[in-house]
Amino acid sequence: MEIKRVSSPEEFELAFDIRLKVFVEEQHVPLSEELDDYDKEALHILVLTDGLPVGCGRVYLRDDTAKLGRIAVLKEYRGSGAGFRLCEELISAAIEMGAKTLILDAQTQAVGFYKKLGFKEEGEIFLDAGIDHIRMRREI
After folding, report:
1. Residues 57-101: pLDDT tens digits?
2. Is 122 part of any domain?
3. Which H or E run includes 139?
Protein backbone atom coordinates (compact mmCIF):
# COMPACT_ATOMS: atom_id res chain seq x y z
CA MET A 1 0.00 0.00 0.00
CA GLU A 2 1.38 3.41 -1.00
CA ILE A 3 0.30 6.80 0.32
CA LYS A 4 0.85 9.73 -2.06
CA ARG A 5 0.34 13.44 -1.66
CA VAL A 6 -1.27 14.68 -4.87
CA SER A 7 1.09 16.93 -6.80
CA SER A 8 -0.33 17.10 -10.34
CA PRO A 9 -3.65 17.61 -12.13
CA GLU A 10 -3.46 13.99 -13.29
CA GLU A 11 -3.19 12.72 -9.71
CA PHE A 12 -6.09 14.96 -8.69
CA GLU A 13 -8.17 13.35 -11.45
CA LEU A 14 -7.37 9.91 -10.01
CA ALA A 15 -8.58 11.08 -6.59
CA PHE A 16 -11.68 12.70 -8.06
CA ASP A 17 -12.53 9.49 -9.94
CA ILE A 18 -12.63 7.68 -6.58
CA ARG A 19 -14.92 10.37 -5.18
CA LEU A 20 -17.21 10.01 -8.20
CA LYS A 21 -17.45 6.25 -7.71
CA VAL A 22 -18.03 6.40 -3.95
CA PHE A 23 -20.07 9.56 -3.46
CA VAL A 24 -21.85 10.18 -6.77
CA GLU A 25 -22.41 6.64 -8.09
CA GLU A 26 -22.64 4.62 -4.87
CA GLN A 27 -24.18 7.17 -2.49
CA HIS A 28 -26.07 9.29 -5.06
CA VAL A 29 -24.55 12.63 -4.04
CA PRO A 30 -25.28 15.18 -6.79
CA LEU A 31 -22.21 15.81 -8.92
CA SER A 32 -22.73 19.56 -8.45
CA GLU A 33 -22.13 19.12 -4.70
CA GLU A 34 -19.02 16.97 -4.99
CA LEU A 35 -16.57 19.49 -6.46
CA ASP A 36 -16.15 22.71 -4.49
CA ASP A 37 -13.80 25.66 -4.05
CA TYR A 38 -11.88 23.91 -1.25
CA ASP A 39 -10.54 21.42 -3.80
CA LYS A 40 -8.26 24.14 -5.20
CA GLU A 41 -6.57 24.94 -1.88
CA ALA A 42 -6.68 21.57 -0.10
CA LEU A 43 -3.90 19.02 0.10
CA HIS A 44 -5.20 15.81 -1.47
CA ILE A 45 -3.96 12.34 -0.54
CA LEU A 46 -4.20 9.16 -2.62
CA VAL A 47 -3.91 5.58 -1.41
CA LEU A 48 -2.66 3.09 -3.98
CA THR A 49 -2.68 -0.70 -3.75
CA ASP A 50 -0.56 -2.52 -6.32
CA GLY A 51 -0.31 0.79 -8.18
CA LEU A 52 -4.10 1.23 -8.36
CA PRO A 53 -5.79 4.24 -6.71
CA VAL A 54 -8.19 2.88 -4.07
CA GLY A 55 -8.74 5.77 -1.64
CA CYS A 56 -8.49 9.52 -1.30
CA GLY A 57 -9.09 12.41 1.05
CA ARG A 58 -8.25 16.05 1.51
CA VAL A 59 -7.28 18.48 4.25
CA TYR A 60 -7.17 22.26 4.43
CA LEU A 61 -6.40 24.72 7.22
CA ARG A 62 -8.47 27.60 8.63
CA ASP A 63 -6.55 29.47 11.33
CA ASP A 64 -5.32 26.61 13.53
CA THR A 65 -8.11 24.17 12.64
CA ALA A 66 -7.71 21.58 9.90
CA LYS A 67 -10.78 20.23 8.12
CA LEU A 68 -10.49 16.67 6.83
CA GLY A 69 -12.96 15.63 4.19
CA ARG A 70 -13.92 13.85 1.00
CA ILE A 71 -12.50 10.69 2.57
CA ALA A 72 -13.39 7.78 0.30
CA VAL A 73 -12.23 4.20 -0.22
CA LEU A 74 -13.50 2.02 -3.05
CA LYS A 75 -15.98 -0.56 -1.78
CA GLU A 76 -13.81 -3.58 -2.56
CA TYR A 77 -10.91 -2.14 -0.50
CA ARG A 78 -12.87 -1.20 2.63
CA GLY A 79 -11.58 -3.11 5.63
CA SER A 80 -8.10 -3.42 4.07
CA GLY A 81 -6.53 -0.70 6.21
CA ALA A 82 -6.52 1.79 3.33
CA GLY A 83 -8.88 4.20 5.09
CA PHE A 84 -6.91 4.08 8.32
CA ARG A 85 -3.59 4.73 6.54
CA LEU A 86 -5.23 7.53 4.55
CA CYS A 87 -6.50 9.23 7.69
CA GLU A 88 -3.15 8.85 9.43
CA GLU A 89 -1.54 10.71 6.52
CA LEU A 90 -4.23 13.42 6.53
CA ILE A 91 -3.67 13.91 10.27
CA SER A 92 0.13 14.07 9.79
CA ALA A 93 -0.31 16.64 7.02
CA ALA A 94 -2.62 18.72 9.21
CA ILE A 95 -0.05 18.74 12.01
CA GLU A 96 2.66 19.80 9.52
CA MET A 97 0.37 22.66 8.45
CA GLY A 98 0.23 23.86 12.07
CA ALA A 99 -3.20 22.58 13.06
CA LYS A 100 -4.05 22.41 16.74
CA THR A 101 -7.54 21.03 16.15
CA LEU A 102 -8.89 18.59 13.56
CA ILE A 103 -12.52 18.50 12.47
CA LEU A 104 -14.49 16.41 10.02
CA ASP A 105 -18.12 15.81 9.17
CA ALA A 106 -18.54 12.04 9.40
CA GLN A 107 -21.29 10.03 7.82
CA THR A 108 -23.00 8.48 10.83
CA GLN A 109 -22.16 4.91 9.78
CA ALA A 110 -18.44 5.85 9.94
CA VAL A 111 -18.43 7.33 13.47
CA GLY A 112 -16.87 4.19 15.01
CA PHE A 113 -14.04 4.29 12.45
CA TYR A 114 -13.17 7.90 13.29
CA LYS A 115 -13.38 7.23 17.05
CA LYS A 116 -10.56 4.70 16.57
CA LEU A 117 -8.50 7.63 15.23
CA GLY A 118 -9.20 9.72 18.34
CA PHE A 119 -12.11 11.83 17.08
CA LYS A 120 -15.11 12.64 19.31
CA GLU A 121 -18.62 13.52 18.26
CA GLU A 122 -19.95 17.02 18.85
CA GLY A 123 -23.27 18.63 18.09
CA GLU A 124 -26.30 17.14 16.44
CA ILE A 125 -26.74 14.91 13.41
CA PHE A 126 -27.35 16.92 10.23
CA LEU A 127 -28.06 16.18 6.59
CA ASP A 128 -25.43 16.81 3.93
CA ALA A 129 -26.30 15.75 0.37
CA GLY A 130 -29.20 13.77 1.86
CA ILE A 131 -26.90 11.70 4.11
CA ASP A 132 -26.81 11.84 7.94
CA HIS A 133 -23.55 13.36 9.23
CA ILE A 134 -22.14 14.48 12.56
CA ARG A 135 -19.27 16.84 13.28
CA MET A 136 -16.28 15.18 14.95
CA ARG A 137 -13.26 16.82 16.57
CA ARG A 138 -9.79 15.83 17.71
CA GLU A 139 -7.40 18.07 19.58
CA ILE A 140 -3.71 17.71 18.72
Report:
1. 999 999 999 999 999 999 999 999 999 999 999 999 999 999 999
2. no
3. strand 131-139
Q: What percent of the chain has pLDDT over 70?
A: 100
Half-sphere exposure of 90 (CA within 13 A, CB side): 33
CA–CA separation, 23 and 65 (whole Å): 25
* 109 CB burial (10 A radius; 0-12, 13-18, 19+): exposed
- Split into its structural domains, the chain has a count of 1
> What confidence tens digit (pLDDT) does each residue in 120-131 have?
999 999 999 889
* CATH number of the domain bearing residue 86: 3.40.630.30
Half-sphere exposure in the Cβ direction for 58 (13 Å, CA): 22
